[in-house]
Amino acid sequence: MNAAFALIARDVRLAWRHPNEIATILAFFVIAASLFPFGIGPEPQILARVAIGIVWVTALLACLMSLDRLFQAEVEDGSLDLLVTAPAPLELLALAKVVAQWITTALPLIVISPIVATMLHLPADGYATLLLTLVLGTPGLSLFGGIGAALSVNARRGGALLALIVLPLTVPILIFAVAAVDAAIAGLSPRPHLFLLAGLSVFALTIAPFAMAASLRQAAE
Amino acid sequence: MNAAFALIARDVRLAWRHPNEIATILAFFVIAASLFPFGIGPEPQILARVAIGIVWVTALLACLMSLDRLFQAEVEDGSLDLLVTAPAPLELLALAKVVAQWITTALPLIVISPIVATMLHLPADGYATLLLTLVLGTPGLSLFGGIGAALSVNARRGGALLALIVLPLTVPILIFAVAAVDAAIAGLSPRPHLFLLAGLSVFALTIAPFAMAASLRQAAE
Amino acid sequence: MIGRASFEAHDLACLRGGRIVFRQLEFRVDAGGLLVLRGANGAGKSSLLRMMAGLIGPAHGALLWNGDDIADDPDAHRARTSYAGHSDALKPALTVAEHLSFHAKLRGQAADKIAAALDAFALTKFADLPARLLSQGQRKRVALARLIAAPAPLWLLDEPTNGLDADSTARLETAIAAHRETGGIVVAATHLDFAGADAVTLTLGERKAA
Amino acid sequence: MIGRASFEAHDLACLRGGRIVFRQLEFRVDAGGLLVLRGANGAGKSSLLRMMAGLIGPAHGALLWNGDDIADDPDAHRARTSYAGHSDALKPALTVAEHLSFHAKLRGQAADKIAAALDAFALTKFADLPARLLSQGQRKRVALARLIAAPAPLWLLDEPTNGLDADSTARLETAIAAHRETGGIVVAATHLDFAGADAVTLTLGERKAA
Amino acid sequence: MNWHRFASPSNFKRLSARIFPWAAGGAALCLGCGLYQALLVSPPDYQQGQSVRIMYIHVPAAWMAMFVYANLALAGAATLVWRHPLAEVAGRAMAPIGAAFTFLCLATGSLWGKPMWGTWWEWDARLTSVLILFFVYLAYMALNNAFDDATRGARASAVLALVGAVNLPIIKFSVDWWNTLHQPASVMRLDGPAIHPSMLWPLLAMGVGYTLLFVVLALVRIQAELIERRLGALVQARLSAEPAA
Ligand code: HEM
Ligand SMILES: Nc1ncnc2c1ncn2[C@@H]1O[C@H](COP(=O)(O)OP(=O)(O)OP(=O)(O)O)[C@@H](O)[C@H]1O
Ligand SMILES: Nc1ncnc2c1ncn2[C@@H]1O[C@H](COP(=O)(O)OP(=O)(O)OP(=O)(O)O)[C@@H](O)[C@H]1O
Ligand SMILES: [Mg+2]
Ligand SMILES: [Mg+2]
Q1: How many separate domains does chain C show?
Q2: What ipTM goes with this model?
């Protein structure tokens, strides 16, 4: 356990020393989301309909960008060898890396998402649920993304391959999250969708550590 | 000049060595673009309105993902030293790397973009203009992105500039491209927008080689 | 500290990329022993060290610690093994001290040997320098200082003197001698002369062995 | 091939990260000469080599080629310099032969010395192997083979024997001797004994120099 | 039962040589009869008219898309647990076939959707989950090919095949769990098929025919892959054998 906490602390510190990486991802999030008013025209009622979708898709893509190097960087500088030969379970260490990635990427995205939602005229009823879906859904994104990142270590065209692996796995998260916010805006209960969302994240949590550890052991061979 | 061609050939070979890599990036584009209907909802008339925006955001993302490591990879394996100490002008070599990136990423995207546009129900009048905007605009994306990639190699100096300057630089490209297609769909002439788009790419071409070479020389210190 | 221990290989074979790198390899080192791996480039020294570290599995045969196959209890084997490979595994933005204390915690140990580790490789004055400012040899010394920061009975060193100056090489030899005195076992691949009392040399890639 | 040439430093100083690494450095090598750089880790050998390659500028003083400051005509200096640093600069997916022929073209030369370069470092068998399958020493040999694939009068070698086995070290010494015979100049940083007739040794980081 | 006995390449070769003619003949027979029945003999639907004939292509293709994926996941488990090379090769060989069946299902479904639902494509749960299945197949193939080392590619894609297996129940039960345009199961049901025998028999014949076709294609691809691997190993051994010092 201590090993995992040490790894989380190290990764958060590393991200903190390169704040421009987080800034890049946040800037991508804001810019990608603010592009849509140009594409759709400024009518608030149409914007409002697509707002949740845009927030979620851009959040997903931004998350993906930061996952690209999650394990690849460890392989390239030789750190993976040290992680694999450490006496702590590799499952736990892989999970710790995902947690650190979530803290440094998803958390800032969640914090600024209300701003983006406002830019897109999301109806007032949707904010609370939007935040809830992000809190419940992004762990699943990061975990499935972690599987993709571990699988694509040392692969040719790692980035695009990662997207190809992760996007289909995360589509259900996207669908339930959007459905939940839609329900809230329509005055219905978002609860069933939120439960499914939480269920997906829990499911991801149960399989991701094993899938990541298995792939990383192969990568270290 | 020969050195630049050799570098383009090497990078293209590295990226396209195996034909399935092209497939990977194309599949990424298709999957990323088909994510939006999951988020936005399937109504064709709304999809049609955001189709151009989606194609362009996805193109930008694909570009960013492949630019991320454009120079960083050269620094990490020591190749940058060989490029900087080669008797060819560094401006030309940096440009060659961007050209190779454009050939391996932007070109396949342009070729497949009509399929994505069809999935998103883009009105028929928009296709020709969409292709034109991609042909005129993606060089600008790659070049501005190349500046960002070179700047972010030099983490100490101005990595944050990537977020603060380069990403906003690409926004005008997106705006003019979307405006051009919108005009074509509305039956207006897209020409003024296309001229502006071409102008931006030419502007990028005049400054990018010098900006990239300057940051790379600093990075090699 | 470690007591009696033995590390041995029986009929070991290594396959990389579908090709046999070595086979029918045998050796035995006891507590306090030093095994020096020699052989031409590509003979399989690094592969053997990675196998000893549990990073790759043997294609045939087994590695035994105190007579037990290390594959039977990989957790215990990882706890007793410290591996220092070709790469330094340094993060440019982290300081030397941060690297060492992270490594100790990663291996589940208290971060109380950092000062000793810095001292052993004359790194004390670089403790707060980020790794990106270090020279090649200084980086290598940080990688080696990990061995002291998080002690383990079995040291696996892949060309540890690469890039070290004479003074640092002497410090490494001192560290190895001290480790062996407490009953530790050291396996080191090298192309150079390596000082060490009664070291066993295993040369890979010779006709007899292949 | 190269004729009379000289490479010298006058009152050279190097600043890294706001700290003086060395100053008042003087040396001179003539055509056919070998300058061996020595000094403890962090003494500034790599920094000096990078300065000679034009990668970093001197904080003070100048490097002269045939009496002209190399900073006056950096293009000409790059054309005459071949730099082999700590890193191998290999792309895992490219083959050994592809690396060498790319390097020749990058330096504006015909790719007709590839076979000779492969032969000089016993790499002919590996010509079509992707670099990711190579061992550490084999990688280093590819990096060194670049010197032969794209000839240049001035060789700058940063710890070139790191990771090489005895046979490869001998091949490197042969290559250096052959280069010097044609009037080439070699500057090499090393911690080891380096065979070379009438080599000039420059030791960095000694009190006198600092 | 000792599976390893069948799994050695030479035993596999003998076994597949024995199966092959029967499977190929059976596939030809079933597909021939099935298509004849489906396109000419069976009655047009009282609601759907002639377009119901797409069903005989579409439905077995959908079954195969899922069936092949299940095999892929099993091969993946075998790759990871027993590390058997034949499982690796089998996964690699089956994936494109499964992707082709999935594509066939999507394409025929889309063709059928136009007359039935008035749209080529709808983002409905059943359709979407099959599209995801197709994407997972693509990702599997890309990952399998993304490494120089075939074993590494096989193991990485095996992990993906297992993770992606959750999609199978979603496809199967999407019509029950959500309100979909797509109709619920009428053949593969616990309480027996609810479909007229004149349609059921040709459908089942097509299903058997597709399965045998899959077996034939998979055997051919596995053989080809085994030969390619042996060649690759020979070439690599020649290239990288360094003379002993
Ligand atoms: C691209 C669009 C479509 C896709 C991806 C799709 C997918 C599937 C799948 C996966 C199954 C297998 C279900 C199972 O075994 O439980 C299936 C069965 C079936 N589909 Fe579709 N389908 C599509 C369009 C259509 C359309 C337009 C119709 C006709 C209205 C249709 C009618 C059927 C029927 C009758 C079955 C057999 C159900 C059974 O008896 O079990 N499908 N489809
Ligand atoms: N990029 C850098 N920025 C700032 N300082 C640096 C940088 N690289 C090296 N230094 C510092 O400059 C000094 C000289 O480093 P250099 O790499 O030249 O030493 P060296 O003699 O090659 O040592 P070694 O034998 O370890 O390779 C060291 O003290 C180092 O800390
Ligand atoms: N990842 C790999 N995949 C396939 N083959 C490899 C891999 N790494 C190394 N090899 C091959 O295995 C053999 C042994 O390599 P290894 O790195 O163990 O040699 P070594 O004795 O450490 O050499 P060196 O002295 O150059 O470091 C070499 O022929 C090499 O080509
Ligand atoms: Mg080695
Ligand atoms: Mg140095």
Answers
A1: 1
A2: 0.83
